[in-house]
């Protein structure tokens, strides 16, 4: 099953929607269980999310499809971040994927074929596309200096931009804007985001000119820039490996 840019009909012939997935409203007992969980459980992994980043991503197999993304970031250490990615910052946002972010130090040690799946972040930061909503620019500067030398791998598991009411099909590999050929973000998409947060990406770009460019961006990242090719995932039946019988 190869990823497609076409909208798929929802199950049961219902028109595609990106609002809410099909299903009945929550019952009172479910509300009680959820509130009890909030009160009694630690939810430690979620509480480690300390940053909200808003930026843009493009589908590796179809760069005409571009989305605004909201990354909720957990810092594991100086060289590794993990992000839960949503399609908005609202209370009913859809969890659409996961992104991992590595420093250049770790990236350089990855196998060559693995490096092809990652994208660099320098352009989207320098271009003012990557923002931490509500955080003053001066507060972000130190972090942005570090992030220009990082690489990300983003798998989208729920293509709400094409109207999928549920996570359907194979995951899609996403790439970062790079500002060349099809790697530009559509101006109306950027304007909509900027208007929502009261920011000006153009001014951010000017103010970020002082952020130093990385001395080296590995050319095996941003694979599409070098080859004009993206990645699409097929789902194929395969022979199952069975467990050996227990003694």
Automatic annotation (TrEMBL):
Per its UniProt record, what InterPro entries does this chain match?
Answer: OBAP-like (IPR010686)
Record region (Disordered): 1-29
Output compositional bias ranges, type Polar residues. 17-29
What residue stretch is flagged as signal peptide? none
> Out of the domains of life, which is the source?
Eukaryota
Q: What does the sequence similarity comment in the record state about its family?
A: Belongs to the OBAP family.
The protein's name is Oil body-associated protein 2A
């Amino acid at each position: 099953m190869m990823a497609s840019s076409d909208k798929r009909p929802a199950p049961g012939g219902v028109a595609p929607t990106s609002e809410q997935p099909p299903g009945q409203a929550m019952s009172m007992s479910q509300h009680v269980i959820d509130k009890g969980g909030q009160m009694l459980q630690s939810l430690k992994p979620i509480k480690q999310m300390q940053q909200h980043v808003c930026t843009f991503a493009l589908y590796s197999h179809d760069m005409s499809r571009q989305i605004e993304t909201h990354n909720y970031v957990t810092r594991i250490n100086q060289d590794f971040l993990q992000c839960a990615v949503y399609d908005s910052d609202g209370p009913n946002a859809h969890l659409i994927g996961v992104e991992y972010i590595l420093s250049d130090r770790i990236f350089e040690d990855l196998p060559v074929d693995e490096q092809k799946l990652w994208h660099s972040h320098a352009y989207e930061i320098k271009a003012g596309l990557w923002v931490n909503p509500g955080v003053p620019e001066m507060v972000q500067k130190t972090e942005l200096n570090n992030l220009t030398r990082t690489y990300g791998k983003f798998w989208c598991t729920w293509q709400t931009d094409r109207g999928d009411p549920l996570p359907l099909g194979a995951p899609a590999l996403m790439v970062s804007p790079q500002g060349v050929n099809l790697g530009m973000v559509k101006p109306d998409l950027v304007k909509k985001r900027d208007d929502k947060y009261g920011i000006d990406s153009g001014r951010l770009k000017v103010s970020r000119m002082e952020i130093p460019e990385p001395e080296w961006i590995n050319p095996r990242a941003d694979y599409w820039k070098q080859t004009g090719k993206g990645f699409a995932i097929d789902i194929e039946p395969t022979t199952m490996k069975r467990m050996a019988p227990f003694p």
